[in-house]
Specification:
heterodimer; A: MetI-like fold; about 70% helix; B: about 280 residues; mainly alpha; MetI-like fold; two-stranded antiparallel sheet; 2 strands; about 75% helix; globular
Chain lengths: ~325, ~280
């Protein structure tokens, strides 16, 4: 590439081995890094950092759609403390996240262990199992809403035919059952993600360890408890923390199934923020509801960062 | 692998696996059956003696025809496709460059920038949608595809960057150094030596990003208002329900057809998709 100056006859080639100012600048790692990171920093700054600042700003004013509003200090947050619907939403969100996470982890791990065995049609099964996770959530949730329909419910029909129930179950209309229904759908959507991620973790574990433990007389349960589980823990932690964030901030599933009802029985942070901020147009209060999620999310993110750092050191 | 008697194998393996598959796939079967079921059979209460839930006696294309002929469904599909492809392309471009810089260049604040991008990856859309809606309005992007094409990368770039960093880190430094000794600039070594090696990673990131864009809901719900601008998820939700009346046949047809593009891409690239998924959590 670099042609020695003396070999070239035409003077226009004189500058060829030297490089233009831009190219030279890009040879410096710092400048190259700045150029490469610029588009990402601009986009994330404009649509993540700026909205975050703007959200904090909105939450301390009394702005509504089209009206800038005045500074009101922490009055919006104080109002939330006294808001009984907000308190219900907080309790619901914690319940929803806790229950679904436990079930998703337990069922996901079980499914991962099943899929980790050798059987015919394994690849196909694995591909199909992931479907609930890849199909757009809103669309598949409509299928569930239809299955839960009080008059036309196929679930009711099945349970009735099996002799398990004698009257119709109003899945989404009854406040207690509505929460159960929403939880079932969230578990349905989340199990494949857990199963496939944990399966990937299981596949990195050397099978010889299992065999060695078996030779030493360990029972299947002991082999799982003392060999597989400790090795799987790092992946599990990341999957669980990741899933907690997603579940805690969940919106679409509840929006489609119940809209937060009946009587706020399934109201979550995000659905309540939507209802106030977009439905009623009270931007500042909606922003305050959304931001109230932030401390919890921050704790989870910090735990995750510390955990990843710890794993990387070891 | 599975020891013991045959009944044990059934009890501990086939039965639970079968139950999982039934639970996970039944809603899709239900979607398909409903799509092709005439209204007369559809709106038959489950208590009725002639309620036949699991098959349909007179399959019909009426719902699909209604969906394609009487609604803006094909327009929503096109919108979603354009938005998803554009957002994925932008995210891959940014993620490639940023991933390269963060994993292979030495510069001040590299570590904290990497952590910063990882943290934005964990920011859920529901945290920022209200102030973001205000910003979109101020930028006069509301009700245009650009409102989504520019905001989807906020959750796609961090993911793409993170995934591609994993691929870049695995490429030995010597490869790049050889190219540079031969006279290639840093830029050329990056574009012609490093990027081609990372093609499997780019494919995984792209497929995953595409499905995430197709799946996105709350931004599309808040930023778009006119029916002809909507994406599939939002269009189906808002236009196929009039007041309290649900057009279940058309809704299920919409859910089925709206899932097909993602399902097709997924079926061709299962391995890449799984690599993207597991890469996204392993980091």
């Amino acid at each position: 590439m670099a042609v020695p100056y003396a070999l070239t006859e035409r003077p226009s080639y004189a500058g060829a081995p030297r490089r233009g100012p831009v190219t030279r600048l890009l040879e410096d790692q710092r400048w190259l890094a700045a150029v490469l990171l610029a588009p990402t920093i601009v986009l994330l700054g404009l649509f993540i950092a700026y909205p975050f600042v703007k959200g904090v700003e909105l939450s301390v004013t009394d702005a509504t759609v089209g009206v800038a509003g005045h500074f009101v200090g922490l009055r919006n947050f104080a109002a939330l403390m006294g808001d009984s619907i907000f308190r219900i939403a907080v309790a619901n969100t914690f319940l929803y996240t806790a229950v679904t996470t436990v079930f998703k982890l337990a069922l996901g791990l079980w499914l991962a262990l099943l899929l980790n065995r050798h059987f015919k049609g394994k690849a196909l099964t694995r591909a199909f199992v992931l479907l609930p996770f890849i199909i757009p959530t809103v669309l598949s949730t409509f299928a569930w809403k239809w299955m839960f329909d009080p008059t036309f419910s196929v679930i009711n029909w099945t349970l009735f035919r099996l002799g398990l129930i004698h009257a119709r179950i109003n899945w989404l209309g009854d406040p207690g059952l509505a929460m159960v229904s929403v939880i079932i759908v969230n578990i349905w959507r989340g199990v494949p993600f857990y199963a496939i991620s944990l399966l990937a973790g299981l596949q990195t574990i050397n099978p010889e360890l299992q065999e060695a433990a078996a030779i030493d007389g360990a029972r299947p349960w002991q082999r799982f408890r003392y060999v597989t589980w400790p090795l799987l823990l790092p992946v599990t932690m990341v999957v669980v923390l990741f899933s907690i964030i997603q579940t805690f901030a969940d919106f679409q599933l509840v929006y489609v199934l119940t809209g937060g009802g009946p009587a706020n029985a399934t109201q979550l942070f995000a659905t309540y923020a939507y209802q106030i901020g977009v439905g009623t147009g009270l931007l500042s209060q909606g922003a305050a509801v959304s931001l109230a999620m932030f401390p919890v999310l921050l704790v989870v993110v910090i735990v995750q960062l510390l955990y990843i750092r710890r794993v990387e050191i070891h | 692998m599975i020891e013991g008697a045959k009944w044990r194998r059934w009890l501990f393996f086939y039965v639970p696996l079968g139950a999982f598959i039934l639970f996970l796939l039944f809603p899709f079967y239900w979607m398909v059956v409903t799509t092709f079921r005439p209204d007369a059979e559809l709106y038959r209460p489950w208590m009725a003696p002639n309620y036949t839930p699991f098959w349909t006696l007179h399959p019909t294309l009426a719902h699909v025809k209604y969906l394609l002929g009487e609604t803006l469904f094909s327009r929503w599909m096109l919108n979603t496709l354009v938005i998803s492809i554009a957002a994925t392309a932008i995210s891959l471009f940014c993620g490639l460059l940023a991933g390269y810089a963060l994993s292979r260049l030495d510069f001040p604040f590299a570590g904290s920038l990497g952590t910063g991008i990882f943290v934005t990856y964990l920011v859920p859309q529901t945290l920022l949608f209200i102030p973001l809606a205000d910003i979109i309005r101020n930028f006069r992007l509301g009700d245009t595809p650009w409102s989504l094409i520019l905001t989807y990368p906020t959750f796609l770039i961090p993911f793409c960057t993170w995934l591609l960093m994993g691929y870049f880190k695995a490429i030995p430094k010597e490869l790049e150094e050889c190219a540079r000794i031969d006279g290639a600039t840093r830029w050329k070594a990056m574009v012609y030596i490093i990027f081609p090696i990372a093609v499997p990673g780019i494919l995984s990131a792209g497929i995953f990003a595409f499905t995430l864009s197709w799946n996105e809901f709350i931004y599309a719900l808040v930023f778009l208002s006119s029916p002809e601008q909507k994406t599939v998820s939002v269009g189906v939700t808002s236009e196929l329900i009039r007041g309290d009346v649900f057009f279940w046949g058309a809704l299920m047809a919409g859910a089925l057809l709206g899932s097909i593009p993602v399902a097709v891409i997924y079926s061709f690239f299962v391995e890449h998709y799984v690599a993207g998924l597991t890469g996204s959590v392993k980091g």
